[in-house]
Design brief:
binds uridine-5'-diphosphate, 9-stranded mixed β-sheet, 10 helices, binds magnesium ion, 318 residues, single chain, alpha/beta
Length: 318
């Protein structure tokens, strides 16, 4: 059975990698007898990523592209890509060659076996000690807070069936955390494991700040457990405070009022102040999200594309 596969590649400042990933992908794709398209989403790159893609597109009809007016982020790029792919199955992969192209075979085979999601799971070989520890800690906490089953090493690199793609597209939220959405939609999944690869060329676009932001998005876009946590902390502190007041009051009844108490006063003020600020911050996170969601702005703005309506040209390998 021949299928139509779309390869979706978000790219931000990846000019060196574009021709390489195209070559590597076609090398693998031509080993199979499938129809395919390769859709690059240029996420407002400031190097000549777009020119590189356009060069490919002018020579190879299977290369499609979509270019944003500015850098909107990888999540909007994935969303836009999913909206514009036509395949029976869509494989999402990075432009930086960290996602080995030979894995398209087990991914497509998994789809043919009938799975709606085939996930490529990496280990953390070669990653810096700090980053891998931080990620482990994050997944440990996130698993407790988020109701979906986030697995370490299972990122955006995966194959989604058309059905799964349509389901993901129904979720038009602004703060996107695709990894979580992919888990949330469920469906039958298959996991393919592979060894982590260090980045080919160019720099990682993730700064520590962006990673932390992404982590907070992950937890906050899935449930309101952190708000619940504020409530519990509030209850516990209140309960302890009442106990303490009784205790002090007993002391006053027995011994009369004594002046010292600076330490207890200052520590309770500081502690409660801290708890309140954290709680306000958490509430703020959610209010901010409501604010952004209600504005209903588009997730991205297209500057240029070679996709004309829904009439795409299918390209055959053999
Ligand atoms: N990317 C993007 N927009 C961004 C940041 C990244 O489209 O704002 C793309 C990037 O070009 C790459 C993929 O997302 O294809 C993963 O980015 P990166 O390699 O920087 O992330 P890491 O592998 O370090 O998680
Ligand atoms: Mg990378």
């Amino acid at each position: 059975m021949n299928i139509f596969v779309s390869i979706l590649i978000p790219a931000f400042n990846e000019s060196i990698n574009i021709p390489i990933i195209y070559q590597e992908l076609t090398k693998e794709l031509t080993k199979r007898n499938e129809n395919y398209e390769i859709l690059f989403v240029d996420d407002g790159s400031i190097d000549n990523t777009l020119e590189q893609i356009q060069k490919l597109a002018s020579s190879y009809p299977e290369v499609k592209y979509l270019s944003f007016t500015r850098n909107f982020g990888k999540e909007p790029a994935i969303y836009a890509g999913l909206q514009h792919t036509q395949g029976d199955a869509v494989i999402i992969m990075d432009a930086d060659l960290q996602h080995p192209t030979y894995l398209i075979h087990p991914l497509i085979d998994g789809f043919k076996e009938g799975f709606n999601q085939v996930i490529a799971q990496r280990n953390r070989n070669g990653e810096s000690f700090l980053r891998s520890r931080m990620s482990r800690l994050y997944y440990f906490i996130a698993k407790k807070l988020v109701e979906v089953d986030l697995e370490d090493g299972q990122g955006d690199f995966r194959l989604l069936s058309r059905r799964a793609v349509e389901t993901v597209l129904k979720m038009g939220e602004r703060y996107r955390f695709s990894k979580g959405l992919f888990c949330w939609i469920g469906y039958d999944k298959k996991v393919v494991k592979y060894d982590n690869h260090i980045r080919g060329k160019g720099k990682s676009k993730w700064t520590v700040n962006k990673l932390i932001d992404h982590g907070i998005d992950g937890v906050a876009s899935f449930n309101h457990k952190p708000l619940r946590l504020c409530l519990y902390t509030g209850f516990i502190t209140l309960f302890l405070a009442i106990l303490y007041i009784f205790f002090i009051f007993g002391g006053v009844l027995i011994n009369g009022i004594s002046v010292p108490g600076y330490f207890t006063t200052i520590s309770s003020v500081l502690f409660l102040g801290g708890v309140q600020l954290v709680s306000l911050g958490i509430i703020g996170e959610y209010v901010g999200r409501i604010y952004h969601e209600t504005k209903q702005r588009p997730l991205y703005i297209t500057k240029d594309t070679n996709i004309v309506g829904k009439n795409v040209l299918k390209f055959k390998t053999k």
